[in-house]
Design brief:
about 110 residues, elongated, single chain, 3 helices, mainly alpha
Length: about 110
């Protein structure tokens, strides 16, 4: 019985500390929180700022993929493989896809 009462007293002390810690954390978050509209506007501005760089990166990746694909197709063509057309269309399609994705995202976000 004594152990149970002692355990309850110890739990009560810890729960008070936990409550005070949680309340302090919530108050500090509420103090530093900003308006929801201001946060969305700031995030939109940052995304628009990074979007041109991301588009250029997509075009660069498309160029590298195109070069690698051209080399692979050339190797298959020289070795006389019969599926050269299929490989060429797959690599060309991936390059076109990257360019289209970049263009569609630009028009979607109105940038």
């Amino acid at each position: 019985m004594k152990n149970t009462i002692k355990a309850l007293r110890t739990y009560g002390k810890h729960s008070k500390k936990a409550f005070i810690t949680a309340a302090t954390l919530l108050i500090s978050v509420a103090i530093y929180a900003q308006d929801g509209n201001a946060g969305i506007t700031e995030a939109t501005g940052k995304i628009r700022g990074y979007f041109d760089t991301g588009t250029d990166l997509m075009y660069a990746i498309g160029a590298v993929v195109g070069l690698v694909g051209a080399i692979k197709v050339y190797q298959k063509w020289n070795s006389g493989d019969h599926d050269t057309g299929k490989v060429a269309s797959a690599w060309f399609g991936s390059c076109v896809f990257l360019v289209i994705v970049a263009t569609v995202l630009q028009s979607f976000f109105g940038i």
